[in-house]
Design a protein that fits this description.
Pfam families: Se_S_carrier. The protein is of the alpha+beta class and 82 residues long. Helices cover 28% and strands 30% of the residues.
Length: 82
């Protein structure tokens, strides 16, 4: 199974904007509820393959998407990597 990462947001508007841009760039994403362990302001998060991390970070930077953080699940907890 491919390792997945999670982007958390403070606003739903930024989550939906990121969804549109990442899908446009053909990145395989899933919208999912933000895990309760992450105290972001938005209930939506985007899950994507770890192999696309650099491409996702570039899109976030160039499109000025405001994110709460990028997380990796390790055992039963989420660790911030950005």
């Amino acid at each position: 199974m491919e390792s997945m990462l999670l982007i958390a947001f403070d606003s739903t508007q930024q989550a939906l904007r990121a969804e549109m841009l990442l899908e446009y760039m053909d990145i395989d994403i899933d919208i999912r509820p933000t895990p309760k362990e992450i105290t972001a302001g938005c209930a939506l998060s985007i899950e994507f393959p770890k192999t696309d991390l650099e491409k996702v970070k570039q899109i976030i930077r160039t499109e000025k998407i405001e994110i709460f953080g990028i997380y990796q699940k390790e055992q039963d907890t989420f660790i911030s990597i950005e």
